[in-house]
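Human:
Focus on the backbone:
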Amino acid sequence: MTWWRRVAGLMAASVLVLASCSSGSSDSVADVSPGDCFDDPTANGELIEEIETLPVVDCDEPHDNEAYAVFDVEDGAFPGNDALYEEGLDGCLPLFEGYVGSSYETSRLEIFPITPVAEVWAGGDRRIICALFDIDLAKLTGSMRDSGE
């Protein structure tokens, strides 16, 4: 059963982000919290867009992504993947500066929301995870929290 859909937003290449601080394992997307670092989930060299787990990476090690915020959206009928993605962007953007310590507009980092798919929504989960990555797709090393990047 697929739990989450990851969409990469403003970039040509897709990127996924989330994980916790224990190295070399995978964590359920439902367990991701701000400060968790993770690599893009792939299979046969291809990015997986609908996921249940993420490749967990210690933030001190090179990694693709970092979760920086989590919030719930309002209950109701599933709004569709595109509308939920836009709602995620709208909710994630104002939370960026408080975590990173610089404005999104001046940052070298890009953001994307990880949103629930319809099946998960039907189960009552309304959680959106805000994640960030380097706009040039370079690996991040260390947490981006208060980095001013």
User: Anything to note?
Assistant: The chain has two helices and ten strands. The chain has one domain: 4-134.
